[in-house]
Write a structure and sequence with these properties.
Layout: E1 4-8, H1 18-23, E2 32-36, H2 37-40, H3 48-56, E3 60-66, H4 74-83, E4 101-108, H5 125-128, H6 130-138, E5 142-143, E6 147-150, H7 157-175, H8 195-200
Parallel strand pairs: 1-2, 1-3, 3-4, 4-5, 4-6
The protein binds flavin mononucleotide.
C-alpha cells in the first residue's frame, strides 16, 4: 500500500463549500495524512525539516487547493519555495523525491468552458498549471494528470457529493498504486477539452 500526503491549502476554509465537501471523506482515511497548511502555519513559519520528513515518509504527494488568481494560495507557494530545497529536492544530489507521485487537485470558480482558447481565460487548466508540473518534474516526481472541480459557484449538493466520491476513488487508486487512467466516470484534465468525450463520461 502506498502512503499519501495531502498538502491542503485554503486561506478561508471556514467559508469553503466545495473543498469542505471534497475533503470530508478522505481526510481520515487509512494510509492518508491530511496536512492542513493554513491550520498548521497561520503565521507562515513553515517547519522545513518537519515537512521534509513528512515527504520522505510518503509515496504520493497531493497538492490540494482552490485556484486563486490562476495559481495557488500564497502559503502553498511559500511551502514550495522553502521546502523543495536545492541539494535535497533537486540539483546534483537532490533526489529525496525521486520516483514519488504528485497529483494536483484544484477547485475553480470558472467553469470548464472558460478555460480554453475560445473561452474568457484563453488557456486550459493544464497550461496554467505548467509551473507546478515542471516543479514536480525537476524534483524527479511523476506529475499525474490534475483533477479539477470547476464552476464551483454553480455546483449543487448532489454534484458536490459526486466529486467527493470521485476524490475517494482517486485516493483508493493511489493507495493501491493503480493507474488513475483506469478510473471510470471521473473527468481529469486534458490539454484540449473534448466536450463530446466529457459529456459521454
Ligand atoms: C482571491 C481569489 C482568487 C480567485 N481566483 C480564481 C481564478 O483565478 N480562477 C478561477 O476560476 N476562480 C478563482 N477564484 C474562485 C475560487 O477558486 C473558488 O471560489 C473556490 O475554488 C471555491 O472553493 P471553496 O468553496 O472551497 O472556497 C478565486 C477566489 C478568490 C477568493
Amino acid at each position: 500500500m502506498n502512503k499519501i500526503l495531502i498538502l491542503f491549502a485554503h486561506p478561508r476554509f471556514e467559508q469553503s463549500r466545495t473543498n469542505k465537501a471534497l475533503v470530508q471523506n478522505v481526510r481520515h482515511k487509512k494510509g492518508v495524512t491530511f496536512h492542513d497548511l493554513y491550520e498548521q502555519y497561520p503565521d507562515f513559519h513553515i517547519d522545513i525539516s518537519y515537512e521534509k520528513n513528512l515527504l520522505e515518509e510518503h509515496d504520493v504527494m497531493i497538492w490540494h487547493h482552490p485556484f486563486y488568481w490562476y495559481s495557488c494560495p500564497p502559503l502553498m507557494k511559500q511551502w514550495i519555495d522553502l521546502v523543495l530545497e536545492y541539494g535535497w529536492a533537486y540539483g546534483p544530489e537532490g533526489n529525496a523525491l525521486q520516483g514519488k507521485k504528485c497529483l494536483q487537485i484544484i477547485t475553480t470558480g470558472g467553469s470548464r468552458k472558460v478555460y480554453c482558447s475560445e473561452g474568457r481565460n484563453i488557456y486550459t487548466i493544464n497550461e496554467f498549471l505548467r509551473p507546478f508540473e515542471q516543479t514536480a518534474r525537476l524534483c524527479g516526481m511523476e506529475y499525474l494528470t490534475p483533477f479539477a472541480v470547476m464552476g464551483t459557484h454553480y455546483l449543487k449538493t448532489a454534484d458536490l457529493e459526486t466529486f467527493s466520491q470521485q476524490y475517494v476513488k482517486i485516493v483508493d487508486f493511489l493507495l493501491e498504486d493503480k493507474s488513475l487512467s483506469d478510473i471510470k466516470n471521473c473527468v481529469f484534465q486534458t490539454d484540449i477539452p473534448d466536450y463530446t468525450k466529457l459529456a459521454a463520461k
